[in-house]
Specification:
By secondary structure, the protein is α/β, with parallel strands linked by helices. The chain has helices spanning 2-25, 50-75, 80-92, 99-102, 120-133, 135-138, 169-178, 202-220, 293-303, 356-365, and strands at 40-42, 103-105, 236-237, 253-257, 272-276, 288-290, 314-317, 323-327. Strand 7 (314-317) and strand 8 (323-327) form a beta hairpin. Helix 1 (2-25) runs antiparallel to helix 2 and helix 7 (169-178) crosses helix 8. The protein is elongated, with a radius of gyration of 27 Å.
């Protein structure tokens, strides 16, 4: 019985150690947890000194030795008390660093992701909600210069690309819903933002963040931002193959803002062409057409231009639905490698002409591996 108990303890200890190592090595982008029960989480972007790492490994080694001695104490009756006492001393004296040195504060929603489709309807609804509830402080352009900004204890933050850089969506959601507090249950300070859960539903908050994410992409050109999906819009395709952009996953796409009276974009057999027409009727030389005004307005956000200035803009979408490149009106007459604005590898070096083929190959060669929990 004692031997079995010792083996069980050893197995549990090794399993716990393996689980801890697996969690530490797991990219945060792969985690989707509906409820996080701890007040701390591992943050790979948190700067940790070499001294703290050495202290951690020493504590782990000392704890492992204590566990081994405890197992031996259960197996060897003669030295049972001495080994147990030594194991206790080693375990209690392990130099564990403070949690604040290795972990960052977390909330119950830290690893949650939006359950909503990244669609033109949700993005634009998020924009309307933002203008109603947030623009007075953070500004119509999300630049932190709203009409009420000067009267607040702390100047509102700019809600641009840095908002989404190295921050978990779930923690941003919790902060908006609950208010700017340090931890769940803490009292808000005089300078904190009040919570919006009384006026905005959980889905509405996700919609606001989708709007801000797409707007930040359009303003920054994707620089310094995580990858974002191409807005899903309704389609009418010649062959009836899909009714929305999501139905074309698995194929590279070229999304073109088509204006009446302008020449059609030449068809390229390497990808499917989607024409945004903003409600205009008529024959368009494209594989699929998105005629809704909402589709046009959503891609105007992605371009960072007013809707009336979108005509002629082009976007490239990879096989997994990620927005990978864009070419704005008035830029070079053909694609160049510098138009690659999104992806784990960043921009392609150089700006060689005739870069459409290079971009297509780069989208497949340097694929975005982030999982998408969007329906």
């Amino acid at each position: 019985m004692v031997r079995r108990l010792g083996v069980a303890l050893a197995v549990l200890g090794l399993a716990g150690l393996a689980l801890a190592v697996a969690i530490l090595r797991q990219p945060q982008a792969l985690l989707t947890v509906s409820y996080w029960p701890f007040a701390w989480r591992y943050d790979p972007d948190l700067p940790v000194s070499a001294h703290t790492w050495r202290q951690l490994w020493l504590a782990l080694a000392q704890s492992a030795v204590a566990l081994a001695l405890l197992v031996c104490a259960l197996l060897l009756r003669r030295w049972q008390y001495g080994l147990t006492a030594l194991a206790g001393v080693l375990a209690l004296s392990a130099p564990w660093p403070r949690l604040q040195m290795l972990l960052t504060e977390a909330h119950t929603t830290s690893y949650q992701r939006s359950p909503l489709e990244f669609s033109d309807a949700n993005v634009l609804q998020g924009g309307r909600l933002y203008q109603t509830h947030c623009a007075a402080c953070h500004g119509v352009a999300a630049d932190g210069r709203g009409p009420r900004a000067a009267g607040l204890p702390v100047w509102p933050s700019v809600l641009g690309a840095p908002l989404f850089d190295n921050r978990l969506e779930g923690e941003l959601h919790w902060r908006v819903a609950q208010g700017d507090r340090t931890l769940p249950g803490a009292e808000p300070s005089a300078s904190s933002q009040h919570g919006f859960q009384a006026v905005l539903s959980a889905d509405d908050i996700w919609r606001v963040f989708d709007y801000l994410r797409l707007r930040a992409y359009g303003t920054s050109g994707g620089a310094g931002m995580p990858a974002i999906p191409a807005p899903v819009v309704g389609l009418v395709c010649r062959d009836g193959r899909a009714e929305t952009l999501r139905g074309l996953r698995g194929l590279p796409l070229l999304v073109v803002a088509h204006a009446p009276g302008t020449p059609d974009v030449p068809q390229d057999p390497r990808l499917l062409t989607i024409a945004l027409t903003r409600g205009a009727v008529g024959d368009v030389n494209a594989d699929c057409t998105a005629a809704a005004r909402g589709a046009w307005d959503a891609y105007a956000l992605a371009a960072g231009v007013p809707p009336d200035a979108l005509a002629g803009a082009q976007f490239m979408v990879d096989r997994h639905g990620w927005l990978r490149a864009r070419r704005l009106p008035g830029t070079a007459p053909s694609w160049t490698s510098a138009d690659n604005v999104c992806g784990p590898g960043g921009r392609i070096d150089g700006a060689a002409p005739g870069g459409l083929g290079n971009l297509l190959m780069a989208m497949d060669r340097v694929a975005i591996r982030l999982p998408s929990s969007r329906p």
